[in-house]
Automatic annotation (TrEMBL):
Location of this chain's protein in the cell: Cytoplasm
Enzyme Commission number(s) from the entry: 6.1.1.20
Record-given protein name: Phenylalanine--tRNA ligase beta subunit
Catalysed reactions, semicolon-separated: tRNA(Phe) + L-phenylalanine + ATP = L-phenylalanyl-tRNA(Phe) + AMP + diphosphate + H(+)
Cofactor(s) it depends on: Mg(2+)
Coiled coil residues, start to end: none
SUPFAM superfamilies: Anticodon-binding domain of PheRS, Class II aaRS and biotin synthetases, Nucleic acid-binding proteins, PheT/TilS domain, Putative DNA-binding domain
Family per similarity comment: Belongs to the phenylalanyl-tRNA synthetase beta subunit family. Type 1 subfamily.
A Pfam family this chain is assigned to: B5
Any one Gene Ontology molecular-function term assigned to this protein's record: tRNA binding
Organism annotation: Georgenia yuyongxinii
Length: 877
């Protein structure tokens, strides 16, 4: 996230003196930049200028020599007689272990109550036999750099003539008391990763004048030097460009000789680097970082003595290795774009760094470097993004290159670096300049200004649309009768299409819709009215949506908890014991799975629901009742096809091919139950969940949408073969298997770490809904006549399914049956071998009369007759 110091921003645009970080955030929000946070000052509390009055060196028993100093801190001095070791003049006594200052020097003093970066609070404390009433500070202690060899001497930092009086606030003097705004930059606005870009946006938001530091005319010299034949040689040899885009289309080199290797970065530069969240290192590195933060152009400095021309930009050879500046040896990929040089005449044989990401350790600037080679290049964003992610190097340079860097900025940025090295390092600019430039101008966009009001819904005048496009740097050319006229800042803007040439720093502007977005952004999102669309009658939930909600509500009312699981699976089918030829094993594999161990899409809900149950059991849930409604993927029948272009609407054949390439994704409902179904209590022991609970949950789900399931014995993994029920829907065309329910196989429970005798069900919900009646289910009126009860016990062969007998009983009972329930199954010697008795409780009622004994007896006789004909049943005597 970029950090925006107000004083730095004010160099490029007019920022009122009273502006706070909150004011800046409010302004930038107007143009679509999101404030992340306001960073408080690095140092808080009293930090003042002090003048060293005396130094008393004291040798300690541990062999260390410390300085007891009396320091004049102006109005913050201790008065004589206060009990803090007063001297002849008001001052403060401070213990200091550094020895790089002398009496009379001005230093930076952190007084008690100050908090330095760390945080490190300062307080008065007794040490080495004295009261140390503050701390004389070094650059590192104040967060201004890594130099901890000695404390800051202001005469060396500012010059003797600029040192203020003792007691002066040092927070303002060193720029440590400023708030800094951190902003969030979206991927399409990479130019805002620079002070130049943020200043431009601030100018758009406030109307303040803006001075572009990226233009040659705004350089101290007013121009950049032209390339010379003797410039440091550079070649681009990209034989395998990504997506047809050459990895490097511009490469500028400059040379600065005779730089003082121990020259320090100026205080204002280190201050700004710290405010921007970067660590000052050395003059050469600090200058390149500073220019990058200011302009948005990443740069790199090489020790010229270690580089052999020509520099060659090429792709890596698979297996090449490079030790980067972070001292990590990396194995390179064939897609990596490299900066190489040519030692011993071997062209491009030595790798200097990962282009646009990080340099190598062999040619970095060191404490002995005097001649510096400056690189300012432009690289393909896709190539840089892939390399940065492949090597996990999200560097500041990569963040900018992968979002797109201004292709017209390289020569200006290099000149800025040269100027700063000459000014602060005492170097001399070499007249040799190299500028390999194959960049192409941004593609013009044909644009009708009337699209802005049409798409946004705000009546933008044509003149306003064109003016806003010019403000962001676009060149607008009028088009009339096939002829074009140059940008005339408003003349002849009455009508017609225009040609818009985006600026080089806005690679995201590639179509008319992007220009409309810019108009809406700069004109103000607050100008776009919030209109609540009307809700026409009859456009609520569809019938299928209401039915799915009814199913979910029914299962929840039965005590099941709805969950949502990710549809990605791994080897779960092996754990579920699916046969090798099971259709559910044919999965659709993902090209880019979120995890290597879950590369495929589920083919049944139990694939992921059982894993959810396992996770809950592992976390202590001993009583479990879960259900899920979701899509499964069945790739059978898919026909692969290519993607159509985006320049036109696909034709009928293309649409048909696309539909054929989409796998079937039916919606299922599934549930898992384990542990106690009813809890223990004062009423007695509870009961465990069993296969009947799974069957009943499935039946109730179907009954909610008016579908009666037929339950019969079946066998399917992952259920126990002897405790599995097939769930069938009877339709006009016959029967359709829509699911299974029952107890899971013991081996499945063991493999998935589920409790023994866990039960589950799964239904093809789309098939169930398709079988539901077209007309809404009508509620039958409640009869006021008394209920007649009748029991009937039928003897059938042991192989006859109870469901078939129950269906025959219901058919025989006819319309008078309000409820038919199986309440007993009996086998015994008195029935004979291979026989069983099924007892049914009948609840009979008529809507218009009280049933007579003769009528209930007739129902009983009809049941025996129908059951006998259907399943060979006999009335048990």
């Amino acid at each position: 996230m970029p950090y925006v110091p107000l004083t730095w921003l004010a160099e490029h645009t007019d920022v009122p003196a009273a502006t706070t970080a909150a004011d800046l955030a409010a302004a930038l929000v107007k143009v679509g930049l999101e404030p992340e946070r306001i960073v408080p000052p690095a140092v808080t509390g009293p930090l003042v200028v002090g003048r060293v009055l005396s130094i008393s060196k004291e040798e300690q028993k541990n062999g260390k020599t410390i300085n007891y100093c009396r320091v004049d801190v102006g109005e913050h001095n201790d008065a004589p007689g206060t009990g803090k070791e007063p001297a002849d003049v008001p001052s403060r006594g401070i213990i200091c272990g550094a020895h790089n200052f002398a009496e009379g020097d001005h230093v930076v003093v952190a007084l008690p109550g100050a908090v330095l970066p760390g945080p490190f609070p300062i307080a008065s404390r007794k040490t080495y036999g004295h009261i140390s009433d503050g701390m004389i500070s070094s650059a590192r202690e104040l967060g201004l750099g890594e130099d901890h060899s000695g404390i800051i001497v202001l005469e060396e930092l500012l010059g003797a003539e600029r040192v203020p009086a003792p007691g002066t606030d040092a927070l303002a003097l060193l720029g440590l008391g400023q708030e800094v705004l951190e902003i969030n930059v979206t991927p399409d606005r990479g130019y805002c990763f620079s002070m130049r870009g943020v200043a431009r946006e601030y100018a758009h938001a406030t109307g303040a004048p803006f001075t572009d530091p990226g233009l040659p005319e705004n350089l101290p010299g007013g121009t950049v030097p032209a390339p010379t034949p003797d410039g440091f040689p550079v070649e681009v040899d990209d034989t395998a460009p990504l997506n047809g885009q050459v990895g490097c289309d511009r490469f500028v080199t400059r040379v600065v000789r005779g730089v003082d290797p121990v020259a320090a970065s100026p205080a204002w530069m280190t201050e700004r680097l710290v405010q921007a969240g970067m660590r000052p290192i050395s003059l050469a590195v600090d200058v390149t970082n500073y220019v990058m933060l200011d302009l948005g152009q990443p740069l790199h400095a090489y020790d010229l003595a270690t580089v052999s021309g020509p520099i060659v930009v090429r792709r890596a050879v698979a297996g090449e290795r490079l030790t980067t500046l972070d001292d990590v040896e990396r194995t390179l990929d064939a897609e990596d774009l490299l900066i190489t040089d040519s030692p011993d005449g071997a062209r491009g044989s030595r790798v200097l760094g990962l282009a646009g990401v990080m340099g190598g350790a062999d040619t970095e600037v060191s404490g002995a470097t005097t001649d510096i080679l400056v690189e300012a290049a432009h690289f393909d964003p896709v190539s840089i993004a892939r390399t940065a992610r492949r090597h996990r190097l999200p560097t500041e340079a990569a963040k900018r290159f992968e979002r797109g860097v201004d292709t017209a900025l390289q020569a200006v940025a290099a000149q800025r670096v040269v100027d700063l090295l000459v000014e602060h390092g005492g170097g001399t600019a070499d007249p040799a300049v190299s500028d390999l430039d194959t960049t192409a101008a941004p593609t013009p966009i044909e644009f009708d200004p009337a699209q802005a009001p049409r798409l946004v819904g705000v009546d933008y005048p044509r003149e306003q649309v064109l003016d806003l496009l010019r403000q962001i740097g676009c060149a607008v050319t009028m088009v009339a009768d096939g002829l074009t006229t140059a940008d005339d800042d408003g003349a002849d803007d009455a009508a017609g299409t225009v040609t818009v040439n985006p600026p080089t720093w806005r690679p995201d502007l590639v179509g008319p819709a992007h220009l409309v977005e810019e108009v809406a952004r700069l004109a103000g999102y607050d100008a776009i009215p919030s209109v609540l669309p009307p809700a026409p009658a009859g456009r609520g939930l569809t019938v299928a949506q209401r039915q799915r909600r009814d199913v979910a509500r029914t299962l929840a009312e039965q005590g099941l908890t709805q969950v949502l699981s990710y549809p990605f699976i791994g080897d779960v089918h092996d754990k579920m014991g699916l046969p090798a030829d099971d259709v559910r094993r044919r999965t659709l594999r993902l090209v880019n799975p979120i995890a290597d161990d879950t590369p495929a899409l589920r083919t049944s809900l139990l694939d992921t629901l059982l894993e959810t149950a396992r996770r809950n059991v592992g976390r202590g849930a001993t009583e479990l009742a879960l259900f899920e409604i979701g899509l499964v993927t069945r790739p059978d029948g898919m026909v692969a096809t290519g993607g159509p272009g985006v320049d036109r609407r696909p034709g009928g054949a293309e649409l048909a091919a696309l539909h054929a390439a989409v796998p079937a994704q039916p919606r299922h409902v599934a549930g898992v139950l384990a542990g106690q179904r009813g809890p223990d209590g004062v009423w007695g022991a509870g009961r465990p969940s069993d296969w009947a609970d799974a069957v009943e949950a499935a039946r109730q789900a179907a009954c909610t949408v008016g579908v009666a399931l037929t339950v019969r014995s079946g066998a399917a993994a992952p259920w126990h073969p002897g405790r599995c029920a097939e769930l069938v829907v009877r339709t006009g065309g016959g029967e359709q298997l829509v699911g299974h329910a029952g107890e899971l196989h013991p081996k499945v429970c063991e493999a998935l770490e589920l409790p023994p005798r866990t039960v589950a069900f799964e239904l093809d919900l789309d098939a169930v809904l398709a079988a539901s009646p077209a007309d809404p289910v009508q509620v039958a009126p409640v009869s006021t006549f008394p209920l007649a009860k009748e029991d009937v016990a039928l003897v059938v062969d042991a192989a006859v399914l109870a469901a078939d007998v129950l269906a025959a009983v219901r058919e025989g009972a006819g319309e008078l049956a309000e409820e038919v329930r199986l309440f007993d199954v009996f086998t015994g010697e008195q029935l004979g071998a291979g026989k069983k008795s099924l007892a049914f409780a009948l609840r009979l009622r008529a809507a218009d009369r009280t049933l007579t004994a003769e009528e209930t007896a007739a129902v009983r006789d009809r049941i025996v007759q129908v059951a006998g004909a259907r399943v060979g049943a006999e009335l048990r005597s």
